[in-house]
Amino acid sequence: MSRASATGDPSGAPHVTAAVLAGGVGARMGGPRPKQMLPLAGRAVIEHSVAAFCDAPDVDDVIVLMVEDYLPEIEKMVDDNGLAKVSAVLPGGATRTATSCAALRALDTRDGSDLVLLHDAARPLVSQRVIADCVSALAGAGAVGVAVPTSDTVIEVEDDDSGAETLRAVPPRSSLRRMQTPQGFHLDVLRRAYDRALADPALAATDDCGVVLGYLPGETVRIVEGDEANLKITNPGDIEIAELLLRQRPQAKDRP
Ligand SMILES: Nc1ccn([C@@H]2O[C@H](COP(=O)(O)OP(=O)(O)OP(=O)(O)O)[C@@H](O)[C@H]2O)c(=O)n1
Ligand SMILES: C[C@](O)(CO)[C@H](O)COP(=O)(O)O
């Protein structure tokens, strides 16, 4: 697999774009504003997410896909905070999948050998280790997911004839993981997967690695170790948990 750069990087490393997906309204969180705009330790949730990729040495530029009404606020956030790697702030789509497609469209003119990392804006605690591991793993795979083991037993359920939920299956826990983001791709791989997925009227994806698995069956999706702290702000109370996790994290100046 070639790592040659279409962008003329003298090191030969491919160009890496991070796309921060922030097109959701945060229905489960509730409240007047999307959850990615909530304050977390003095910054908006989305600012933590964007800053993490701006700080990542492997990442060349960052695009942000945001709920349309909030685009001016995000542009101001980028300017006010010197988030200089942000190259575009664009509208997201009506579903997460549509927002991933909007990110792909924004990268239409890029070379297929470029790399893209798709990340939930709602995961503000993503670490530099996870970002670096995701990029490194793309040297050996067309797609990379980030996942953690599950300490709970995960079950499958179904409704019985009366509509009551019942247990259908208990898959072996040792092979189960909980998927996180970022998820990384060679751009040509993600393009081919979505070309096929969008032609399928039954498309129902909850993440982008799943689209590659489902529509490009021959493509390896490597899984690298995620981080329990890389939680997805989803429900009321999650901001408070993220605040606690952030307090435990060593400050940049104290890191070895
Ligand atoms: N139309 C959408 C829906 C979701 N997302 C993004 O995908 C990530 C994960 O989605 P989720 O946690 O489901 O966010 P929401 O859709 O905002 O939440 P909810 O389902 O509770 O409305 C979030 O960063 C969210 O902003 C997106 O970019 N575009
Ligand atoms: C992509 C994801 O974060 C992986 O765990 C998750 O599937 C997003 O789901 P959501 O319902 O859009 O939050």
Describe this structure in words.
The chain is an alpha/beta fold and 256 residues long. The protein has one domain (16-248): Spore Coat Polysaccharide Biosynthesis Protein SpsA, Chain A (Alpha-Beta Complex). Helices cover 29% and strands 23% of the residues. The protein has seven helices and eleven strands. The protein has helices at residues 45-55, 71-80, 96-106, 128-137, 187-198, 208-215, 238-248; strands at residues 16-22, 39-40, 43-44, 61-66, 86-91, 115-120, 143-149, 156-159, 165-169, 177-186, 221-225. The strands form three sheets. The chain has a seven-stranded mixed sheet with strand order 5-4-1-6-10-7-11, sandwiched between helices. A two-stranded antiparallel sheet has the order 2-3. A two-stranded antiparallel sheet has the order 8-9. Helix 5 packs across helix 6. The two termini are 34 Å apart. The ligand C[C@](O)(CO)[C@H](O)COP(=O)(O)O binds at residues 96, 120, 179-181, 206-207, 232. Pathway: Isoprenoid biosynthesis; isopentenyl diphosphate biosynthesis via DXP pathway; isopentenyl diphosphate from 1-deoxy-D-xylulose 5-phosphate: step 2/6. Keywords: Isoprene biosynthesis, Nucleotidyltransferase, Transferase.
